[in-house]
Amino acid sequence: MTSFPDSAALMDEAQQLIFPRFTEDTALALGLRLVELARAGNLPVVIDIRSASRSYFHAALPGSAPLNDLWAQRKSATTLLFHEASLLVGVRHREKGETLAKHGLSSDAYADHGGAVPIVVEGVGMVACVTVSGLPQVEDHRLAVRGIEAVLKAR
User: Fold this and answer.
1) Among 113, 150, 111, 119, which residue's Cα sits nearest to residue 135?
2) Beta-strand pair 116-121/18-19
3) What is the mean pLDDT of each run of 10 residues along the chain (155 residues)?
4) pTM, whole model, 2 decimals?
5) Which of 29, 35, 87, 133 could form a disulfide with 68 if both were Cys (CB 3.0 to 4.6 A apart)?
6) Residue 68: CB partners within 8 Å, gap ≥ 6?
7) DSSP characters for 15-44?
8) Phi and psi of 43, rounded to 5°?
């Protein structure tokens, strides 16, 4: 079983995942890098990159299911609302004994499970999020982070 990071570790990690800029080309590079990483591990995931108003990239890899698309939507909605990784939102809730319901949010539309990570641009803030769904939630989160790190390193 994969252990959960604590909120401090996730906040520290977020400080390392900041883009100098983010364009459609960046979204495509990130999506394709995640597809490459997932295919290398034969991982049955859905990969989604979106802002509040636009979809930049979506891929459903072999073995994934329509349910993974629904999870990706719900995790993305959480990250887009809180401007934090969905895993961090969930970890904080568990640390405080809270749920999304405390904020008046329905589990039909939001999920505080790992897999959605904000795309943050230096000097701008969060502009979109990348979401992975299909693995245990900490592994979804880690794959999304690995993709961001790879794209940042290549720039």
Assistant:
1) 113
2) parallel
3) 85 97 97 98 98 97 98 98 97 94 95 98 98 98 98 93
4) 0.96
5) 133
6) 44, 45, 46, 60, 133, 134
7) TT-EES---HHHHHHHHHHHHHHHHHTT--
8) -95, 130
Max Cα separation, the chain? 40
CATH topology of domain 7-154: Beta-Lactamase (3.30.450)
Digit-coded pLDDT (tens) for 86-95: 999 999 999 9
Which of 123, 126, 127, 118 minimizes the C-alpha distance to 148? 118
Q: Please give the Cα distance from 65 to 42 (Å, whole number).
A: 14
Return the pLDDT at 155: 80
What backbone phi and psi angles, to 5 degrees, belong to 77?
Answer: -60, -40
DSSP code of residue 118 = E
Residue 18 contacts by C-beta under 8 Å, 6 or more apart in sequence?
A: 120, 121, 122
Token output for 61: 């890899």
Given CA atoms 16, 17, 21, 26 in this order, what sign does their dihedral have?
Answer: positive
Are 31 and 60 in contact, with CB atoms under 8 Å apart?
no
Pairing of the two strands 46-50 and 125-133: antiparallel
Domain spans in the chain, listed from the N-terminal domain onward:
7-154
